[in-house]
Amino acid sequence: MKSLQVKVTVLATVITAVLIGLVGTLMLTAQRQQIADQTADSSRVHYMCSSTENCVRLSERTTAPTPGVLVRYASTEVRPELSIWPFTGPGETPYQVIGEGWRPNEEEALTIVDQAQQQLNNATLVLFGVLASIIALVSVTVLAATSRVLRPVEAMRAEVAEINEHNLTRRVPVPSSDNEIARLGKTLNETLDRMHRAVEDTRRFVGDASHELRSPLAALRAELEIALSHPHLADWTTVVKAALEDTERLQELTTDLLLLARLDADALDRQDTVDLTAVVRREVSRRGTVTLEADDQVLVPGRQAQLSRLLGNLLDNAERHAGTAVVVRLRGGPSATLEVIDDGPGIPEADRERVFDRFTRLDEARTRAAGGAGLGLAIARRIATRHHGTLEATDAEGFRGIRFVATIPTGVPLPRKAAAQQRAGDEVWQFLNGSIVPTHGHIPEPRPAPERELEWELIFGEHPPVPR
User: How far apart are CA 284 and CA 338, in angstroms?
Assistant: First the structure.
């Protein structure tokens, strides 16, 4: 019995039958007692007895009793022992004759008892018929009601069963009434909307990633094929240098893609108390044209490597577009506020949200020399979101450029969780960052990335690099 409709109907029928059975039993018990009392009352006969004569019915005595003779009055009645179930046949119902006086003859008593039993039998059959009709009516009503209530659910199920990766635009029908079923349909449609957006984002991400990876691969292949076709005329130093630049670009792009995948998949299950002031000062000290304005010891919960990467990406973007000045400001409070301001051309207000999308580059940054793959700001916002913060682009006060504002809540970091086993794909991260020495002679060893300690922590999470 798998149908919810059948289960609800059977349950309602059983409960109704039990309740009605109890009520019917009580009613029949009361009816039996009433019929027995009525039978005893109707069969009661009164007698007058004296010491000198036999007892006679009062209705049969026509003369007054003799003066001086003591008399007494008596009565008898027939009380049947009626049976609710099973029914008894004529002459089978037991009875008792109660009282003093002449006992009625057996034939007369059986007639009285049989009439009472037949009256009880008729009442029992009528009550059984009424109760059975009520139970049947309840069953039919519950079956029809559950069928009507579950009809929208079945329509939703059938619609969801037809949805696949090729028709994610379909939605379940939502009833017009404001009840639980309607709210279920709205929730399902909202979930399908999120799934549709996620799938479309994934498809777009895969397409953009394929396009970005194809360009340096095509350039690398063309350079090598031209050099190999004319080996004696090729300037191998220039060829290798150009190939190395393309390889480094591929490595950076692949590292960013894998980092984005890890940021999307992993939860921030390990947090430390990070001195954001120290992180900012260390990152700014590597860049000679950046002005720093920071409060002392701004502490936030999170991961130092990721927060350093957030600031590094913002500074890379600022230095790429700045005219003469880049300013970094850090303020404490309930939330740490990190601002990166440049005096470049700025970002149109219509594009200030779009620049955080993956592979988004404005027209002036589309050349190969002007910028990267358009992942820096996307990674920065994802890191801010993982730290329960925000990252926005606003007007730069006192500058003609743009201001990126990141807010990170301050507070007590969450307790550390036990270190997980090394996950599949970690060896890819290690290889890309030069921590695994390749064993195949034809694969060149990747060059180590700068700031190894931060980059390794950012990539591995809690896993230290394999010693070389």
Answer: 13
pLDDT band at 141 (very low <50, low <70, confident <90, very high): very high
Strand partners, 409: 335
Average pLDDT over residues 348-364: 77
Mean pLDDT score, 240-251: 83
Rounded CA-CA distance 217/253 in Å is 12
Amino acid identity, residue 286?
R
Instruction: Out of 390-394, 415-419, 427-431, give the one with best mean pLDDT.
Output: 390-394
- The answer to whether residues 247 and 389 touch, using CB atoms and an 8 Å cutoff, is no
Please list the residues that pair with 73 across neighbouring strands: 48
Name the percent of the chain lying above pLDDT 70. 78
Q: What is the pLDDT of residues 395-415, one digit of tens each?
A: 877 667 889 999 999 875 655
Print burial letters for 42-61: b (CB count within 10 Å at least 16), e (below 16). Answer: ebebebbbeeeeebeeeeee
CA gap 54, 49 in Å, rounded: 6
Phi first, then psi: give them for residue 356, nearest 5 degrees: -90, -5
Check residue 74 and report its DSSP letter: E
Q: Where are the alpha helices (DSSP H) in 275-425?
A: 276-285, 304-321, 376-386
What is the predicted pLDDT for the residue at 297? 87
Amino acid at 115: Q
Residue 78: predicted pLDDT: 86
pLDDT in tens, 320-337: 888 888 899 999 888 899
- In the chain the first and final C-alpha atoms are separated, in Å, by 64
Tell me, rounded to whole angstroms, the distance of Cα 375 from its chain centroid: 32
Q: Chain-wide mean pLDDT for the chain?
A: 79
Listed residue (256, 206, 211, 196) closest to 378, CA to CA: 256
Q: Which two tokens stand for residue 356?
A: 């955080």
**Residue of 150, 142, 145 whose CA lies nearest to 181:** 150
Average pLDDT of 6-21? Answer: 93
In contact, 320 and 340? CB cutoff 8 Å: no
| Cα 449 → chain centroid | 42
Render 281-294 in DSSP notation, one character per residue: HHHHHT-TTEEEEE
Residues in the chain, overall count: 468
Residue 83 neighbours by CB under 8 Å, 6+ apart? 93, 117, 120
DSSP 326: E
Cα 341 from Cα 314, distance rounded (Å) = 9
Rounded Cα distance between 253 and 261, Å, is: 12
- Side by side, the strands of the sheet bearing 402-409 are 290-294, 326-331, 335-342, 402-409, 390-395
